Amino acid sequence: MAGPPPKPWPTGLVEHPEPLVRRVLAPNPSPYTYTGTQTYLVGDDDRIAVIDPGPDEPDHIAALLSAIGDAEVAAIMCTHTHRDHSPAARSLAEKTGAPIVGCAPLVLDDSGPRADASFDKLYEPDRVLADGEAMTGPGWTLTAVATPGHTSNHLCFALEQSGALFTGDHVMAWSTSVVVPPDGDMSAYMASLEKLYAREDRVYYPAHGPAVERPRQLVRGMIGHRRQRENQIVRLLSENAQSPRELVAVMYKGLDPKLEGAARMSVTAHLIDLERRGMVSRSEDIWQTN
């Protein structure tokens, strides 16, 4: 994971990465959210969609309402329901009258490595988008692209007019996505990466970190990185049976202790995937090759 850029960050300010897209940064920085959650406003001055409204923080809600101005909000669209992405949808819907549209609800006890990634148990969409379904407005169309893996309900949204893809947490330039079992699934995540690699999107706008200007190149590298990790796990287990914690100690030299839990969950996700493919097995928390 890359460190955040030097402050000041543009928290609460409106940025304009391209004509149909505005971006507002929420005040929730952390080792897992980079400088914070980026909420995107898509459309013109008359009718817009809001993507990933973020945490339900009063300052962030106020910044979003200021950015929205007199525009009609056609939809509040969520890529997934981790608490750094969807909770503000409720407050924004109350203030604008807009429907909540996008990913399906998902309520689980997340054993993940960070508190801000637990699921938003109060998320109630007015409409769930299936893969390929779209929301439209004057001069814009946002099409859902199902990308399970980080979470089982994760969606990306493609802006058909410009070739931009809003990738939520699925693909980010500053870090690989954390895949946390039991809902996070490495096999599904890899399949979703392959799905995006087959597309011709011009640019990615993730929920955290900078835009991705060469998306297929980044996705190809991410697939290669995950395959290297997988091969490393198999090689280490072929030498001797180990726990995920022991694997992390070897695989992630010099890792910030704050990130150890995320690394352990990622290794566990790889192990579960390898187990399904018959390549490894376990006895309690000790894994070995078959």
From TrEMBL:
Q: Name one Pfam family in it.
A: WHD_BLACT
Its keywords, alphabetically, are: Hydrolase
Recall the GO molecular function terms of this protein's record: hydrolase activity
Ranges of residues in domain Metallo-beta-lactamase: 36-208
Q: Which Gene3D superfamilies match?
A: Ribonuclease Z/Hydroxyacylglutathione hydrolase-like, Winged helix-like DNA-binding domain superfamily/Winged helix DNA-binding domain
* Keyword Hydrolase part of the UniProt annotation: yes
Classification via SMART domains: Lactamase_B
Keyword check for Signal:
no
Signal peptide residues on this chain, from the entry's feature table: none
The identity of this protein, by name, is MBL fold metallo-hydrolase
Q: Can you name the source organism?
A: Tsuneonella suprasediminis
